[in-house]
């Protein structure tokens, strides 16, 4: 299965009720301690790698991997040696 392009990702997310879609790029070896967001998240990794920790469980995410987070869910992020890029849809 091939990954969608950004326009397809964006239109699909908006059709699902997400109101904001953007590309996030993170620098190499960035760490974000436990935090929350006031919006739901649906995302697709497009470059690099990172580790997402929720409820003590860590997922190693690479290009083609998707993840979802409900609003106000505590999580931490650690980005790999090349950083990471992902497309993210937010439902505010």
From TrEMBL:
It holds the Pfam family Cupin_2. This is AraC family transcriptional regulator. It comes from Limnohabitans planktonicus II-D5. InterPro entries: Cupin_2, RmlC-like_jellyroll, RmlC_Cupin_sf. Residues 34-76 form the Cupin type-2 domain. Gene3D superfamilies: Jelly Rolls. SUPFAM superfamilies: RmlC-like cupins.
């Amino acid at each position: 299965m091939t990954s969608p392009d950004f326009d397809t990702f964006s239109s699909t997310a908006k059709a699902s009720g997400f109101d904001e879609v953007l590309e996030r790029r993170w620098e190499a070896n960035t760490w974000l301690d436990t935090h929350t967001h006031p919006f739901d998240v649906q995302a697709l990794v497009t470059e690099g790698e990172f580790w997402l920790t929720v409820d003590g469980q860590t997922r190693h995410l690479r290009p083609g991997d998707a993840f979802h987070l409900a609003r106000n869910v505590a999580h931490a992020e650690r980005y790999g040696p090349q950083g990471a890029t992902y497309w993210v849809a937010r439902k505010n």
